[in-house]
Amino acid sequence: MRIVVAGAGLSGAVIGRLLAEAGHDVTILESRPHVAGNCHTERDPETGVLVHRYGPHIFHTDDAEVWEYVNRFMRFRPYRNRVKSTVGGQVYSLPVNLHTINQFFGASMRPDEARAFIAARAEKIADPQSFEEQALAFVGRELYEAFFKGYTEKQWGISPSDLPASILKRLPLRFNYDDNYFSHRLQGMPEQGYTPMVSAILDHPAIDLHLETAFDPDTSGAWDHVVWTGPLDGFFGCRLGRLGYRTLDFEEFRADGDWQGTAVMNYGDASVPFTRITEHKHFAPWESHAGSVLYREFSRACGPDDIPYYPIRMVAEKSLLGEYVALAGKAENVTFAGRLATYRYLDMDVTIREALDCGRALVEAFATDGAVPRFSGAPL
Q1: Among all residues, which ones are annotated catalytic?
Q2: How many other CB atoms are found less than 10 A from the CB of residue 18?
Q3: Which of 25, 112, 168, 322 is the most buried (most CB within 10 A)?
Q4: What is the DSSP code (8-state) at residue 286?
């Protein structure tokens, strides 16, 4: 079959590779001048630092098959994400753990003491509905206002009282000294970056890759099947309106030596306009560089010409999403795959897992003339 894949990010690359390995002719069209989407990495020519051009991506998973898959195309080196936060002129460890609690309250509590201490400060809210209520019921007012309130207002552009509680439910609170941001068993970074890894996935004789070439949905009929990994509303020309996203702006600066001593420094104070500073040499601790490349990150509403990062998924967006899902159900010979096409925030391992499952389902459907998957995972 002649299949076109719109987008050379993780979803498009993995699905395209599976289809090519199954004997189909796969054309991949990528609007940007590089593969790997927002995971794109490149060497800074001045310092040699491996830069995550669209913000840092740390790979973490408990899915052994996904881990084996990415290591098939690039060696992954061990990496632990240890995030710090500057609040009120002091530096703390995140996620909130026993060290954070003791430092913040000037104490030296044991785990059982800290647990009781936080429980006594947590507000009694039986069924938290908002981010703010969930945080107050989770950690109490002092820790909420220090580590969550200002940062969240900057990240989402609205009050935490207007955000759903579900956003906070995935953030850990630890009563030990574990400062590893993720709890997954398998964690690491691709030794030479994500872009060479995705390039290796796409290196197959049945894949024809075209960069700086956007796919026009109006040409869908020229192909036996389309895999769309762009924004769901974009496939339909945003005819019903635009789904809401937050985007990021990056302010680059450089330094000699080690500027902040860690890869990620959050800034929780609302008075600081940026959310965090990332120092990219620390994302590859096995390398050594004299110079350093850093970025201040600013979050804002996503415009029509901006890169979408985080789906807003408030009530209005969910209603509009339902309308686009209904449109997608009527589209012939199209599969919508990945975070943008399903309007969800997905970690990289989940993206790859869904792409593997979707690609295999497509191979099976084409071989048996069965029903093709409409979505890789279902929009929620």
Answers
A1: 170, 174, 246, 276, 297, 345, 347
A2: 20
A3: 168
A4: T
pLDDT tens column, 92-128: 999 999 999 999 999 999 999 999 999 999 999 989 9
Q: Of all helices (H) and strands (E), which one includes residue 16? A: helix 10-21
- Helix (H) / strand (E) containing 113: helix 111-121
Closest CA to 8 of 204, 186, 192: 204
State the number of CA atoms in the 13 A half-sphere of 135 facing the CB: 25
What is the chain's mean pLDDT, rounded? 96
Between strands 291-301 and 276-279, the pairing is antiparallel
d(CA 325, CA 237): 14
Model pLDDT for residues 250-290, shown as the tens digit of each residue? 999 999 999 999 999 999 999 999 999 999 999 999 999 99
- Angle formed by the axes of helices 98-105 and 111-121, nearest 10°: 60
Kindly report the CA angle at 310 between 304 and 315, in degrees rounded to 5? 90
Asked if pLDDT for residue 380 goes beyond 60, the answer is no
Alpha helix locations (H) across 122-248? 131-139, 141-143, 150-156, 166-169, 194-201, 232-235
The strand pair at 2-6 and 25-29 is best described as: parallel
Q: How far apart are CA 122 and CA 116, in angstroms?
A: 10
The pTM of the whole model exceeds 0.90: yes
